[in-house]
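Dear U.,

For the methods section draft, I wanted the exact inputs and outputs in one place so we can describe them consistently. I've listed the two proteins in the order they'll appear in the manuscript figures. Please don't edit the token lines directly; just add comments below if something needs changing.

First protein:
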Amino acid sequence: MKYFVLSLLLSCTLMVQSQQEEETAFPLEGPSDWRKEILSFPLDFAPSLEYDGTEYVLFSKGWADKAATDFWTYTFVWDLYNAPNLSEERLNKDLTAYFDGLMKEVAGAKISKDKITPTLVNLKSNNNGKSYEGQISVFDAFFLKEKITLNMRVITSYCVTDERHIVYFQYSPQPFSHELWDEMKAIKIPCSN
């Protein structure tokens, strides 16, 4: 009986471990030298974003290198359980809250709050609310300690099999004609097929 109970406990522990690993599996398939990060909603730096799900981030190899062609180039996915009901207005508002909160958190006490200029987002819908394109002007508290303008694309989809809403974001200061955008386009995202 004692061995049965121990065996049962071990089985339960392994099942829970396996389930946790599945839940934290990284769904984006990008270049192997891009750094990964996983965040859970609600985001500490942007609590006004009332979503339920996970954010998966891929940073380009040169994301932190001011001299690199792929400086500040990165992507992230919001993998959401509830419909985000996105629109130009909602995305502009959400991204303003996201980046203002992120930059204030990164700046901490190192940069005076009055130096951090507000984020300006200008996204326009390309395809009946399924994709958006535009620019974002954000205070770079990470590296430059000044405003940086990024081109961005946002693509939304619904994953029927998993009943999840996917919002895919791409950012780079490079123009849309640059090859980096082809590299980001090649990144496999959940339910993209």
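Second protein (the one for the lower panel):
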Amino acid sequence: MLEKSEVKRIPGSSKNSIKNTLEYKMTLFFTLFILGVFVLYFLMPDNEKSEWENRYLEQAPKLSVTDLLDGTYMTKYEDYINDQIPFRDGFIKVKAVAEAGLLKCENNGIVKGKDSYLFTKGKDDTTVFDKNIDIIDQFAKSVDSRVTVAIAPNASGVLEDKVPKGFMMPNQAEKLDALYADKTLLKDARVVDLKSVLRAREDEYIYYRTDHHWTTNGAYYAYQEISENPIDLSAISENVKAMEAGDFLGTLYAKYKGLFVNSDIITYYDIPVLKYSADGKEYAGLLDTDKLSAFDKYGMFMRGNFGRCDVKTSTKNGKSLIIFKDSYANCLIPFLTYDYEDIIVLDLRYAKESIKELVSDHKDSDILFLYNFDFLNEDNHFYKLMK
């Protein structure tokens, strides 16, 4: 029998034991964590919208034989699982903090530039843009109404000095200049050069830092160029006081969620109208100021996006306008109430009526296409113009 002093120790056996114990505990921890998340999937109700990300979340897809066979169902289900993961907002924030700790200026496809401006990182592919411009061109040729096309460059197309060097962005300025120079396109429409208008004011607060929209100030400069007889801002201010709302963190911040980002200020004019209805429901005015206490403060303009809105203004001149638009137009439309007595606002994403019939019924109306560049380069609903 060996004495205690004669017992031989295996070199490193103690360290191996500690290492094995730690590995066992970590494996057990992650197993329990994954199991807990899996259980919570079934216990917690699905969320319809993420206020933190400012978007609607994927819901459980309906099972169909077609979707199952072509793989669509599994893709939709994967998106659903990713959107409904428990404590999603917390995970997003932790990821953003970790990215900032690594001194990265990009998170979730959003790039932080100079002076705390956020930009959408994109590819220099304008195939969809060209397709949509061609459809608008065909539409302009097919109607007797006076057509105006105004394309707003996004912040990256105007505030180029604030975009981080080396990040790929669609060259909006170059693309818009090419469009203006191409006399074979949109020759049946009046094309408004908003790029030059905004670049002349690039030192002013014309784009939000944390949101993809232009500010009310930027929209007013665009209105001056679109309108043939624009009202002066001082004349508006005599009757309608300019209001402000601070602590606005917009759609870009909703994705970025990084650190050291300055919030924005929204300026608005609650211009009165005689009547306003959106998708058949009447409202007291163009603005929903209750949304200033929500995350999506920009949603106050025109009360959000609808398929069709009808505006009866206080202007008495017999003129009417049909606007095809995205959300960029929402903060500009109140200025147009000084130019027209009746305004029909159409968002092709949600519009259900026949556009050909509507235009035919309003032959005396002017027509305005007002979109931001990124929207025209992504949206696939312009086919509705020909139906």
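Candidate sentences for the figure legend, describing the second protein: The chain is about 35% helix and 15% strand. The radius of gyration is 27 Å.

Thanks,
Y.
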